[in-house]
Write a structure and sequence with these properties.
Layout lengths: L3 E6 L7 E4 L1 E7 L2 E2 L5 E2 L4 E3 L12 E6 L6 E9 L14 E8 L5 E7 L1 E3 L8 E3 L4 H14 L5 E5 L22 H17 L7 E7 L10 E3 L5 E5 L13 H13 L40 E2 L13 E2 L12 E2 L7 E2 L2 H10 L13 H11 L7 H9 L3 E9 L4 E10 L4 H13 L11 E7 L4 E6 L11 E9 L4 E8 L2 E7 L6 E6 L11 E7 L7 E7 L7 E7 L3 E3 L9 E11 L4 E5 L4 E3 L5 E6 L5 E2 L5 E9 L3 E3 L4 E5 L3 E5 L2 E4 L5 E10 L5 E10 L10 E3 L2
Parallel strand pairs: 10-13, 10-14, 14-16, 19-20, 37-44
Antiparallel strand pairs: 1-7, 2-6, 3-4, 3-5, 3-8, 8-9, 11-12, 15-16, 17-18, 21-22, 21-25, 23-24, 23-26, 26-27, 28-29, 29-32, 30-31, 30-33, 33-34, 33-35, 36-38, 38-39, 38-42, 40-41, 40-43, 43-44, 44-45
Helix pairs in contact: 1-3, 6-7
Bound molecules: zinc ion (2 copies).
Length: 708
């Protein structure tokens, strides 16, 4: 189902021939498909040397419509089919190629803004990144360019993630220009993921970092392998060619780590960002995308319109090519970055499609890593896995460890009996990951459970998950069965206790006061509770919301203090007439929780609609192909598709429905093209672009983006 173009390379003898046309036919099971043949997008001069493949117009290129993109399809290109150019031999004017389309997995992604200040100084302005429609278009679409997924399902978690104890009257912000700050925000994303019940399986969590934040050159950080990462949302070319969007490329790079990809050695300092792929520089030395070969691999940017380009950019396999055709592998540090066949093949395997192109060059360790990433539970220690799955009481502990200083701190310790199912699942996966992944340190750090008389009840090595330039300070998050009798949880290195949380004699008590049933939540809605700690300790609170009467929960506030929390954005909460709220009180070890006694209502939110192409200002020849591409996501329904997306021209009326629609019959003139997405409770959101068919008028039209 992926957006697809076909290219055909041609040559002529004995001289160059100009103004040549070509068309593409498509057959499945010997039956010609609807819409076949299709004309090429360009009319070219055919050269005796076959032309230069980097030059778009030295070859023919074709749009491949959606219903040609499944099953086994034979494509047949026919050059000079109209005999416009007299030829002595037309027997070599056509060529067939049979390909099989296979559906890979979809990618599920939720994006969470992070609340940050430059250098962690609260006196500096707050830098929280809130995406706009057009930012989603350009940032998100990079993931489809570089990851071989059948589609991307995305959600936006609008309320920002704050540093722990942000509300306390002392300095505690994240300084993302330091190693500790970079790890701390990854840890925060991991905690948010931990508390929230993933609403789809295999959900990746991505923290959004404001582009103006000083990150000391860092563009992102991602667990390898895993589900959590963050990236700097630089929604611009950032000095690179027009096809290159720095933030979207960084997201793709971090998701590559999540899928188990290592760095490749390009700039020479990738190893400072974790392990590098031992195969590199094989198979392609000097940071090449592939072998430098005129008949080899070329990148082709099928999504060019999204970046406002008039035609696709071709990426050369030669690293010496000039801009904008020059590119380097996605997992290296040299920019601009494109996906290499080697990386693409590795990702295909993780998205469920076998790809053996490079298996012969893999080390045994790499094969093992790939297998563990695909199916970590198969590699988990069976005893540990059983203990985790059968436990009724757990310790969830996370924190930061400085490797060189030999220091550590907890950023959360909770004794709980009801972790989210996917939190337990991800803990189980880590039991597999840790067999082959994780930072190796000379003297391991351990997480230790101790009883009142100082006896060690349980001790295990802390899995330092990150492998992407986290640097000195590493983060961890472990979910373990509680060892009965535990009164203290410690981080140790050898016998040395680096950090400790001790249980006070009594757990806290908490009562949720509002919303407690019967309410209709509106803007400014506030969650209130009353809590006490018999031991007089300080309490912090997490607030969770359920749209399904307590079946599943999502974290909306963490590490809160005081006795109330104003919900920052109701659009974060799926609308429901069966809403419940939960408050979890923590004294730093024990937890207590209380839910709303009855259900309350939360208004539903309209979908967010995004037009990917055409870009505003685009013009097309009358009768030529215009591809409309868009998507929408809805807080209640998730991604919308099919008839829930409808397209309309203010000039020609209804055009059709779906995420991708090819139209060739737009009338001459200016069109406002509107995509309207409608969710299951009838609310709608729309986006509009202005395009011209024929010669554009001199008057300037501005893009209109609307979300009621
Ligand atoms: Zn702040
Ligand atoms: Zn990296």
């Amino acid at each position: 189902s992926r957006y697809t173009r076909a290219r055909a390379y041609v040559s002529s003898t004995p001289y160059n021939v100009s103004s040549v046309r070509a068309r593409l036919r498509a057959y499945r099971g010997g039956v010609e498909l609807a819409g076949s043949p299709r004309g090429a997008n360009n009319i070219i001069t055919v050269r005796t040397d076959g032309g230069n493949r980097v030059n778009l117009n030295d070859s023919f290129w074709f749009y491949v419509p959606p219903d040609w993109r499944s099953g086994t399809v034979t494509f047949r290109v026919e050059v000079n089919y109209d005999n416009a150019v007299p030829e002595s031999n037309i027997g070599n004017n056509s060529l067939s190629r049979t390909v099989t389309f296979r559906e890979s997995q979809e990618l599920n992604l939720v994006m969470v803004p992070l609340h940050l200040h430059n250098h962690g100084n609260r006196n500096n302005p707050t830098l929280s990144y809130y995406a706009t429609n057009s930012a989603f278009t350009s940032l998100l679409w990079n993931i489809l360019r570089f990851h071989p997924i059948s589609r991307i399902n995305w959600w936006y978690y609008e309320s920002a993630e704050y540093p722990s104890f942000h509300g306390w009257p002392f300095y505690n912000e994240w300084d993302v220009s330091t190693s500790g700050g970079k790890s701390a925000i990854l840890s925060a994303i991991e905690w948010k993921n931990f508390w929230t019940w993933d609403w789809v399986s295999r959900l990746h969590w991505m923290g959004m970092v404001h582009p103006s934040l000083d990150t000391d050159g860092g563009l992102g950080l991602g667990n390898r392998p895993g589900w959590n990462s963050w990236a700097k949302m630089i929604n611009s070319h950032d000095g690179w060619p027009d096809w290159y969007i720095t933030g979207g490329n960084s997201m793709s790079h971090e998701l590559g780590h999540n899928k188990g990809l290592q760095h490749v050695n390009c700039s020479g300092n990738e190893s400072s960002g974790g392990s590098t792929d031992p195969n590199y520089p094989w198979p392609y030395p000097n940071c090449r995308l592939s072998a430098v070969d005129t008949s080899g691999y070329y990148g082709f940017d099928v999504h060019y319109q999204i970046w406002g380009l008039a035609s696709p950019t071709v990426l050369s396999n030669d690293p010496a090519a000039s801009s904008p055709n020059q590119a380097f592998p996605l997992m290296g540090y040299r920019r601009p970055r494109w996906i290499s066949p080697y990386e693409y093949c590795k990702l295909l395997v993780q998205y469920g499609i076998s790809c053996g192109l490079f298996t012969q060059f893999e080390t045994a360790q790499q094969r093992l890593e790939e297998a563990v990433t695909s199916n970590p539970l198969a590699f988990a220690d069976p005893g540990e896995l059983r203990a985790l799955q059968q436990a009724t009481e757990y310790i969830a502990a996370g924190g930061l460890i400085s490797i060189t200083a030999g220091t550590a701190e907890f950023n959360g310790v909770y004794q709980i009996d009801n972790p989210a199912p996917d939190a337990r699942q991800e803990a189980a996966e880590k039991l597999g990951y840790r067999r082959v992944f994780g930072l190796q340190v000379e003297q391991p750090f351990t997480l230790v459970q101790v009883n009142a008389s100082g006896q060690v009840l349980d001790s295990r090595e802390i899995y330092l998950v990150n492998d992407d330039g986290e640097g000195d300070v590493q983060h961890f998050l472990e979910l373990l069965p509680l060892a009965p009798g535990t009164t203290r949880v410690q981080i140790r290195q050898g016998d040395k206790v680096l950090a400790e949380r001790a249980a006070s004699p009594n757990p806290p008590t908490v009562q949720l006061l509002a919303p407690n049933g019967g309410e209709q939540l509106g803007p400014g809605a506030t969650v209130r509770w009353s809590a006490s700690d018999p031991d007089g300790g300080d309490l912090t609170f997490n607030v969770l919301y359920s749209a399904d009467n307590g079946q599943s929960w999502r974290l909306i506030g963490m590490d809160l203090t005081g006795d109330s929390f104003e919900i920052p954005s109701l659009t974060d909460l799926p609308g429901s007439s069966q809403g419940r709220m939960r408050v979890v009180a923590s004294d730093g070890f024990h937890t207590a929780q209380d839910d709303s006694d009855g259900t309350f209502s939360v208004p539903g939110s309209p979908p967010l609609a995004v037009i990917l192409e055409p870009a505003t200002g685009t013009s097309a020849e009358p009768g030529s192909l215009v591809v409309l591409q868009g998507m929408a996501t809805d807080v209640e329904d998730g991604p919308l598709s099919g008839t829930r997306l409808s397209w309309r021209s203010d000039r020609d009326g209804d055009l059709g429905t779906g995420e991708e629609l090819a139209v060739e019959s737009l009338s001459q003139g200016t069109h406002q093209i509107t995509l309207t997405a409608t969710d299951s409770d009838g609310q709608s959101g729309s986006a509009t672009v202005t395009i011209y068919v024929g010669t554009p008028p001199t008057r300037l039209y501005l893009p209109i983006l609307a979300r009621p």
